[in-house]
Amino acid sequence: MSRKLPLFKMKSIVKSSRVNRAWLNDHVNDPYVKQAQKEGYRARAAYKLKEIDETLHLIRPGHLVVDLGAAPGAWCQYVSRKLMPKTPTLPTTARAGSRIIALDILPMVAIDGVEIIQGDIGDLRVTALLAEQLQGQRADVVLSDMAPNLSGHGAVDAARIESLVELALDFALMHLKPDGALVAKVFHGSSYDDLFRRFQEGFGAVKRIKPKASRDKSAETYLVGLRPQFPHRHRLDGGVSPL
Description:
By secondary structure, the chain is α/β, with parallel strands linked by helices. The chain is built from eight helices and seven strands.
């Protein structure tokens, strides 16, 4: 004998189904999704980084770029095309000096020219491996599009978001060049002001950018820290940076 679902549960399922259909419809008709498919990007997120980069001119051939939370790889694809374009006008030496290092807890399909590490940035063994992969170099740009799986509980989600941004910030301040930059996704909420203050303390200048490719309903925005300030960081030669 079949059992009927309670009315409140049936309403919840119907509502969820409607939401999923609406999201799918929006996604399929999204101009950035269509453009990503046309240009071979793995996700529409590539256009967020593209707008940030075209606004601030952060990424140039010869740079070392570290992408935190890289999967599925759209940002790495954009960086790869920018650093290593298939054009005879760019000197071979500039292409050869470019490096991209990607880190994500999820597996990622290989991209030409991208060094991929799978692991959790919150694991000290993984961050040590990432630092080792730099091979003594400082990064020109650190990217972080990391976001946690949201639970729906405001305080819990805010803490998770803040933790990821702080991990990216700590890594960037330890490994960026003096004229380097950090691009990090943040969300407007209870932790936003604290994170913005930390950026102000860590960088000579901070820019806030909401790319057009960010969905209208999304609370996400991007903080870009320029010219890191690291008076207590040790130099590669073992000395201490001046105050």
